[in-house]
């Protein structure tokens, strides 16, 4: 492919270059991605050759654009954080509709901060905290925090290691893919720490359930996103740890994806 991209000065010729590159990599599949990319880039740009290289490497458009929409916000995204997923918007929506009265919320494994920040916009009188093991993720979450007046308190923590108060609601979308599963090509640019967990993907979910009981107020709620088929194990685990009522919630594909436990 021709590499002297600087000669493409106009927006239209850059669009043609992106289309040609895109179709040589993805053929005619995933044209939706191309549309998002062209819309998000604000062409013409000087760095068009970088974008072409990234398409050729199959880097996800969210990392090329370095931003992505989630719920009602737009988020700075980089290779240190998971790309926010549409199913996680269901978790936010559920909390906004059912748990609006909660006054303190902890988001464990906050990544870009998308769950915590969207909740802080809707639960305006709540104190919201977001923690992550990755200092680079926390740095990005703090940058994303500028979009809300009810700012989230972000800090690094290995799950509860630096948490020293109790909350009305604890929410988490932790890593839950089994370390033994083969890596889907679309995931290879996302941070391993955001994706994989020991014990068939259940180790971090289990730890959060066990420890949460000590960090929830009386009648507090734990809501977790989980992987396909993990709900029975998690329900048993919640019962064993003393949660009184448990609910399962489905995702957009009608698959059990979230579990809620009431203390
Ligand atoms: C699936 S990502 C979720 C990111 C974000 N909450 C979202 O929904 O888009 C899981 C996050 O958990 C963080 N994480 C993994 N292990 C952790 C640990 N031991 N303590 C705290 N955070 C952890 C990862 O860095 C990652 O940001």
Give me a quick take on this structure.
This protein is α/β, with parallel strands linked by helices and about 260 residues long.
Tell me what the structure shows.
The structure is a single chain. This protein is 38% helix and 21% strand. The chain has 263 residues and is of the alpha/beta class. The chain has a seven-stranded mixed sheet with strand order 5-4-3-6-9-11-10, with helices on both faces. The protein has a two-stranded antiparallel ribbon with strand order 1-2. The protein has a two-stranded parallel ribbon with strand order 7-8. The longest helix has 16 residues. Bound molecules: S-adenosylmethionine. The site of S-adenosylmethionine has 22 residues, from α6 and α8.
Largest sheet: 7 strands, mixed
- The rounded Rg comes to 20 Å
Average of the residue pLDDT scores: 94
> What ligand molecules are bound, each kind once?
S-adenosylmethionine
Total helical elements: 11
Instruction: Give the structural class.
Output: alpha/beta
How many domains, in number, for the residues? 2
Q: What's the CATH architecture name of the largest domain? A: 3-Layer(aba) Sandwich
How far is the first residue's CA from the last residue's CA?
Answer: 60 Å
Order of helices and strands: HHHHEEHEHEHEEEHEHHEHEE
List the uncertain runs. Answer: none
Give the CATH superfamily of the largest domain.
Answer: Vaccinia Virus protein VP39
Biggest β-sheet: strands ordered side by side in the sheet: 5-4-3-6-9-11-10
Shape: globular
User: Under the CATH scheme, which class of the largest domain?
Assistant: Alpha Beta
Q: Beta-strand level of the residues, as a percent range?
A: 15-25%
**Fraction in helix:** 25-40%
Number of extended strands: 11
Please name the CATH topology of the largest domain.
Rossmann fold
